[in-house]
Every structure is written in structure tokens, then in C-alpha cells.
Amino acid sequence: MKHDPKQIALDRIQILVKEAQSNILQNPELAQRQAGLAKKISTKYKVILPYEIRMQFCKKCKSFIPPGTSRIRMGRSTLKSIRITCMFCNHTYRKVIARPK
Ligand SMILES: [Zn+2]
After folding, report:
1. Out of 3.40.50.150, 1.20.1740.10, 3.40.630.30, 1.20.5.420, which CATH number does the structure's domain 5-98 have?
2. Distance, CA 3 to ligand 1 centroid (Å)?
3. What's the gap in Å between 92 CA and the centre of ligand 1?
4. How confident is the model at residue 82 (pLDDT cuts 50, 70, 90)?
5. How far is the centre of ligand 1, averaged over its atoms, from the C-alpha of 94 (Å)?
6. Radius of gyration of the chain from Cα atoms?
7. What mean pLDDT comes out for the span 24-31?
């Protein structure tokens, strides 16, 4: 059996992020630690975080802001997008969910 260290790292990252998501409301400190660890693993093993995990980190302060903790607003432009506001540093960034054809 072949054990790809990158695959193992990715599995661990996904488990950690899942754990962090379920802990974020009851135990935010633990959740931040778990999310931070997931990031550290991705750096160490040079694995790129899947997009859905990457977008849960604030681009500015690198805090873990899963849906439910960050403020999400629909954009008003024709470009379908949502605005995500980090609750730690108040940094707002836009995520495009669909491009007009
Ligand atoms: Zn932030």
C-alpha cells in the first residue's frame, strides 16, 4: 500500500478544519488552534488547501472564520458575490460565487 504523505496531510487538515468548525461556537480558542494547526500542516507538507477551506481563513489576519462566525452579505452588483467580514479585524473581502455569462 502506498502512503502519500501529502494525502495523509490533507486528510489531517480536513479533519482539523471539521473539528474547528464544530468547536468554533463553544470553544473558539480551541477552534483557532485547530485551524492554525491545519494551516501549519499545509505549509509543512506543501499541500495547497482546498478552496472551501482557504476561503474560511481571513485574508488579512489569517483567523479562522467559518460560516456562522463571519458576517456574510450578498453583493448588490450584477456580479453574484458575497461579502465576508472578518469578526476579528473587520476586514471585508468579496467572494464571487457566479460570474455573469
Ligand atoms: Zn481578519
Report:
1. 1.20.5.420
2. 36
3. 8
4. confident
5. 13
6. 15
7. 93
